[in-house]
Design goal:
By secondary structure, the protein is mainly alpha-helical. It has one domain: Alpha-Beta Complex (Cytochrome C3), CATH 3.90.10. About 35% of the residues lie in helices and about 5% in strands. It has 5 helices and 2 strands, in the order ααββααα. The chain has a two-stranded antiparallel ribbon. The longest helix has 18 residues. The chain is globular. The relative contact order is 0.17.
């Protein structure tokens, strides 16, 4: 019963948070805007606002060492997977639990899923 309740609570949180996401374009923000990764799974949201404005990271904190400047370019890499992330590559360079939340503990903070992806596509039209 506890597992079911935890799952239900997570699902409700995910649905509520994904429904209220609005994409910001680079020209509106003064930084890279928001990016939705579609591979290896559809619907992973990266917010430049959270990283640049809220946390205070500079562009060169990630570019061109961890990520190239071209949006979604890393999707072309065969090792752009959660397994690589857990080994400290890509987002995992920070999201290992020591510098930022551990990526294996708060999935819904980034993964908006197919339904969240489709909602954002409809909003942007």
């Amino acid at each position: 019963m506890k597992k079911y309740f935890a799952f239900l609570l997570t699902a409700v949180f995910f649905h509520a948070s994904a429904a209220h996401v609005t994409l910001a374009a680079p020209e509106e923000t003064g930084h890279g805007g928001d990016i939705i990764y579609t591979k290896p799974v559809k619907g992973v949201l990266f917010s430049h606002a959270n990283h640049v404005e809220a946390v205070g990271l500079s562009c060169d904190s990630c570019h061109d060492t961890i990520f190239p400047m071209e949006a979604r370019a890393v999707q072309k890499n065969k090792d752009f997977t959660m397994a690589s992330l857990y080994k400290g590559k890509y987002c995992g360079a920070c999201h290992d639990g020591s510098m930022a939340f551990a990526s294996n503990t708060q999935c819904a903070r980034c993964h908006i899923g197919v339904k969240g992806f489709e909602r954002l596509q409809k909003k942007s039209k």
